[in-house]
Amino acid sequence: MEPGRLLALLWRRATRLGLRHEEAQGKGSHLKLRRGAGATVIPMHRGDMPSGTYRAILRQPGLTEADLED
Predict the structure, then answer these.
(1) Which residue range forms the structural domain that includes residue 21?
(2) What is the CATH number of the domain that holds 43?
(3) Contact 42, 6 (CB under 8 A)
(4) Exposure check for the chain: N or C terminus, fewer CB within 10 A?
């Protein structure tokens, strides 16, 4: 999945999922998602991200692919 598409899905459901975002500290194009006390970094590179990275981004804040569906 492309990072921009993942973020669009997350932002549309941010309130329901309890997410907020902030600019990541440091170099590069990364965003940091926060849910409660935990944080997940999303690499904002061109093209599709590897499927393992996508699954890890969802797993870290305790989300599933079903959470992103309408």
Answers:
(1) 3-68
(2) 3.30.920.30
(3) yes
(4) C
